[in-house]
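Action item from last week, closing it out:
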Amino acid sequence: MKIKTFTAKSYSEALEMVKKEFGPDAVIIETEEVKDGNFSVKLTAAIDFDFETTKTLNKKTAFQSYLSNEFAEENEEALSSPYIYNDEIKEELKEIRKMLFELKMSNKFQDNAAFYNLLKKQGLREEYIEGLLCDLKDEKELYDRLLNDFKAGYRLTNGKTIMFVGPTGVGKTTTILKLASFAIKIGKKVGIINLDSFRLGAFEQMRVFCQLLGIPFCTINDIGEFADIYKEFAKGKEILFIDTTGRNPKDKKYITELKKIREFSFPFEIHLTVSMSMNDEVFIRAKDNYEELGIDYLIFTKLDEAYTYGGIYNIYKTFGKPIAYLTHGQKIPNDIQAVNPMKLTNMILGRGMVQ
């Protein structure tokens, strides 16, 4: 087996060097970008698996047979093949298998290392990067894939009751106050129901704000009383917002209590509120619990506290629900944005990459 590293100014030039020296059967096992004043690319390639005991075996066929097992869950059978006796070669093949798997996951076989690095830097999960880059032709196709993937946008229309759920500290109360202000601005009759009696600060913020704007406001401490209070409170109002207690999504009692509200025959929408200051793993692991509530929309908050926006795509793909709004600060009624697929795509790809 022969392994060699080729250095060139571009991937295409490096690949030509590999083909010229090793021929079409060469395998790229590592790529690397070098930026030391002048941009260059290093490709490490391998060829000629000449096993001592298989001189009569067609080498290309033997290697292709080995590669067919490269990504199987169990590779011991491949490594114990009768064509491989040398322990040193076995170790080399183990290393190559590891590198090939990593390359497959990042789709660097497709010469998409720059796109892979960008999406990885933005915080996208490996499985979603692989899907986006599979058989990718160019930057425009990546942009179009993201653009067509996103479902986003929302309208505050009459007859809606919107309940906000999510862990403590994601910004449910502040988001409700922003949306309530906007609804009043466009002439809607609004009411707010508070279920968060645990956080006195949130309750007081809500009470004072509603008093200043003249928004009807009530608190329900017992879910068993919810239906009767809701029916009476909803009279004469066009849009209702419900603020819920922030709890750990692993708390089954919390999920069970909220499910009781969902079971009432009222026109509820459940908006999962996601803070960009939190690790997206918190929400992804809680997917099954939140889905018991029947999530309808996603709202992403605290974008001003985030360094990257890949978590938006990760959570969107996990839940498969449209994105209603983005918020980026504490100012009421400001710091909230309508959202569309184009805006989200540009955020994911990074400012300035695609105009």
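Closing note: The chain is about 40% helix and 20% strand.
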